[in-house]
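Q: We require from you a single protein entry containing the residue sequence and its fold in token form, and nothing else.
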Amino acid sequence: MHEWALAEAVILSAKTFSKKNGINKIREIGISLGELQQVDGEVFNFALKEIMNTENLDFKVVVRKKKAVLRCKKCGREWNYDPESMDEMEKESIHFVPEVAHNYIKCPGCGSPDFKIKEGRGVWLDYVRGD
């Protein structure tokens, strides 16, 4: 599952960051999930817990969703991504390869498929706190 691979990458990133920055014991990590990535939060959280259990890790995980904001390169209009206006195949395609969003999403102002993803793409580690 895609969510498991993302969870593994986040845990590895947190461990790598803590090692490089002299953090001996991780107490909390913050993660942002971009809406465009369409990560199943329940599966992602379950995967995080299972990986942490397997690796004997014990820290708080704070996950926040980041709304997707798109900006048309032709007319300059900004709008929010609306997955409810898409069919399941389109949503699934964007989930695995967000770059294909240009094939399915058009500017609501001028209809152009040429837009920039300003916010809400990907999964990233916001912070690592510890001792």
The first strand starts at residue 26 and ends at 34.
